[in-house]
Amino acid sequence: MMTFRMPRPLRTCLLLAALAALPVLAVPLAAPAEDKAPAPATATTTTPATATARDVAASGRPAFTGAGGQTVMEAPAMPKDVTDDRRRPRNYPEQPPVIPHSVVNYQLDLKVNKCLTCHAREFTGDSQAPMISVTHFQDRDGQVLGAVSARRYFCLQCHVPQTDAQPRVPNQFQDVDSVIRGAHPEGKGDK
Amino acid sequence: MGLLNRVFCLAKAAWAAFNRPAAHLGIGVLTVGGFVAGVIWWGGFNTALEATNKEAFCISCHEMRDNPYADLKQTIHWSNRSGVRATCPDCHVPHNWTDKIARKMQASKEVWGKVFGTVDTPEKFEAKKRELAEHEWARLKANNSLECRNCHSAESMDITRQSARAAAAHQEFLFTGRQTCIDCHKGIAHRLPDMTGVPIWTMPAHAAGH
Questions:
Q1: Contacts with A123 from chain B: Cβ below 8 Å
Q2: Which of B98, B113, B175, B209 is most deeply packed, by most CB within 10 A?
Q3: Range of the domain at A55
Q4: What value of ipTM does the predicted structure carry?
Q5: Is residue B195 a part of any domain in this protein?
Q6: Span B165-203, pLDDT tens digits
Q7: What is the mean predicted confidence (pLDDT) over A107-129?
């Protein structure tokens, strides 16, 4: 391919230039996802490159984040919490189920565990919430305990609420069933 | 015997002086003067009372500023989408005059606590938190969560705007009067203490005999 050999200082310079240009190149890549966001009212002094890039001077913010010192990226609006109480399928069997309701200001510390006031075994009759699974009653040696194991006490370490935020990068994850179906397209639904 | 007699004589002389018609002041001066003095005294009393019912007064002590007030700042009663917030007296001082005076007399215990440093460190406050919380739970339980209802009225509560779970719970427990606000909403404005043994927190309501 490249038959001539570049002098070393030139190569370093080119490499550094390419690195420096990366944020600028990334701006148009990230922009289409936020095109729907309304243009901020203050962005009138200069025409911004996109609806989400604003002039640094107009933004009133320090310019250290600006690509080329000229624009800043507007953060997307805060995503909405998912609070519809509908269970989400797990992407793989070991996935901790996600939380389909608001947990804002739920107290979860050594004194109080708000989650367990619905999800503990004793309470599920009144609350109709899913019971914490039996794995939560085992210590790390598999010894079964009478109550939730200490290592499973802090629910939000594994279980997290969801928002309607869209992924910032593409994701080609496929669950195991899709993979199997893809490998044996003729045997759909059969073992 | 001699002492008792002397006290009796003194009381008699005091009553005679109190009961004797004024020799130098006119009845008009006395009446108008008494009225003006009454207005000043009552106005002063009420002003002083109201001054101690302000949040600024509550948090002038570091015990309140660093503990319950710091707790409050983490909650929806401090910061929310509409910007309406509750101050300490909104929940902790009854609006009704008689109840207010009763509460203020109880609060003299808090002055005692301040003077003798009952909760002057975070550790001491934490150790006493459950007891203090139970006093407030008992008060709100006894007056049917009156201080909650000063702002939140069941009549104006549109449960169609609530989440399904909240709507179901309010319909079943609030509208029927089976429970009052504080039964379910403990810790709505402060971090809770250890809740061991508190119904619906560490045991179901039926286990607690509710």
A1: 200, 204
A2: B113
A3: 11-73
A4: 0.77
A5: no
A6: 899 999 999 999 999 999 999 999 999 999 998 988 888
A7: 91
pLDDT digits (tens, 9 = 90+) for B121-152: 999 999 999 999 999 999 999 999 999 999 99
Instruction: Classify residue B30: in a domain, yes or no.
Output: no
Q: What's the structural domain count of chain B?
A: 1
Q: Taking CB atoms and an 8 Å cutoff, what residues of chain B touch A83?
A: 163
Please answer whether residues A69 and A76 qualify as being in contact, where contact means their C-beta atoms are separated by less than 8 angstroms. Answer: no
Domain assignment present for B193: no
Rg (CA), chain B: 25
Distances (CA, A) of B74 to A177, B2, B57, B187, B188: 44, 66, 20, 11, 10
A113 located within any domain: no
Smallest CA–CA distance, residue A175 to chain B, in Å, is 31
Q: What is the pLDDT of residues B70-115, one digit of tens each?
A: 999 999 999 998 999 999 999 999 888 898 999 999 989 999 999 9
DSSP H or E segment with residue B36: helix B27-51
Strand-pair category, A71-73 with A53-55: antiparallel
pTM exceeds 0.80, yes or no: no
Q: For the CA atoms of B165, B168, B172, B176, what is the dihedral angle to 10 degrees?
A: 120
- Domains in chain A, number: 1
- Which of B165, B191, B200 faces A85 most closely, judged by CB atoms? B165
Sequence-distant (6+) residues with CB within 8 A of B156 are none
Taking alpha carbons only, the member of B112, B97, B113 closest to residue B45 is B97
Q: Which residue of A has its CA nearest to B189?
A: A105
Measured CA to CA, the distance from residue A191 to residue A168 in angstroms comes to: 36
